[in-house]
UniProtKB/TrEMBL annotation:
It comes from Vibrio caribbeanicus ATCC BAA-2122. Keywords: DNA-binding, Transcription, Transcription regulation. Residues 148-213 form the HTH luxR-type domain. It comes from the Bacteria. This is DNA-binding HTH domain-containing protein. Pfam families: GerE. GO terms for molecular function: DNA binding. The lineage of its organism: Bacteria, Pseudomonadati, Pseudomonadota, Gammaproteobacteria, Vibrionales. Signal peptide: none annotated. GO terms for biological process: regulation of DNA-templated transcription.
């Protein structure tokens, strides 16, 4: 499709050594126009220009150049992000690090699927797997729910999530799976919760939650 019909533009965020990325070359041929390159350090100079930039990022390369520039402004509202070449499921924290995330494509994604997704994103659509949608929705709901905790108890978003799970009788294994964390991390959170609430076990913690916290819907 001709590039000039779009008000929004995709740029390939790349390091110095990856200007000839194979996937970008294939996308250029498939979509019919050149995808401009943008270096990580250039982001600081373009924050207030071209507000409709969409950053296309090779996940494998990102893990290399992010250590060189520690404060990539990906969370700035000026940018939207598309991640491709993703080898496995990302944690919630990893997803949030990409800021305004619009699309994710795995290592096995076909080039026509990536191209179709990019064109959809240019037109304002989201192109995220259902599991990622659910993962982010779970997180943002928990952020809202932090406002329902009593002000006298300093609970984190994670701790409130776990308390809500206790309210419905979830096991440590179920909590770990739902929150995409390890059982060891769940146990660590529980110990902190017990201390903050001055309770001895999960039964007492669940009872406290049912008395003090609003139910979720």
């Amino acid at each position: 499709m001709p590039k000039n019909i779009y008000a929004r533009t995709i740029y390939f965020l790349c390091g110095e050594n990856n200007v000839n990325n194979t996937t970008i070359g294939q996308l250029t041929k498939y979509m019919g126009y050149t995808i401009p390159r943008l270096r990580p350090e250039d982001l600081f100079q373009t924050l207030h220009q071209h507000k409709h930039r969409i950053l296309l990022i090779d996940h494998e390369e990102y893990t290399q150049f992010k250590s060189q520039i520690r404060e990539l402004p990906l969370v700035n509202r000026s940018f939207e992000t598309i991640i491709f070449n993703v080898p496995c499921r990302l944690t919630t924290d990893e997803l949030l690090a990409f800021g305004h995330l619009k699309g994710i494509f795995s290592q096995n994604a076909a080039i026509d699927d990536i191209a179709r997704g990019c064109e959809g994103i240019i037109n304002g659509e989201n192109w995220l797997p259902r599991k990622v949608d659910a993962q982010l929705l779970f997180y943002y709901r928990s952020v809202v729910e932090t406002q329902t905790a009593p002000a006298t108890v300093d609970l984190t978003a994670r701790e409130i999530q776990i308390l809500r799970c206790l309210m419905i009788g979830a096991s440590n294994t179920q909590i770990a799976e739902d929150m995409f964390i390890s059982e060891f991390t769940v146990k660590s959170h529980l110990q902190k919760i017990f201390k903050k609430l001055s309770v001895r076990n999960r039964v007492q913690a669940a009872a406290w939650a049912k008395q003090h916290m609003h139910p979720t819907y």
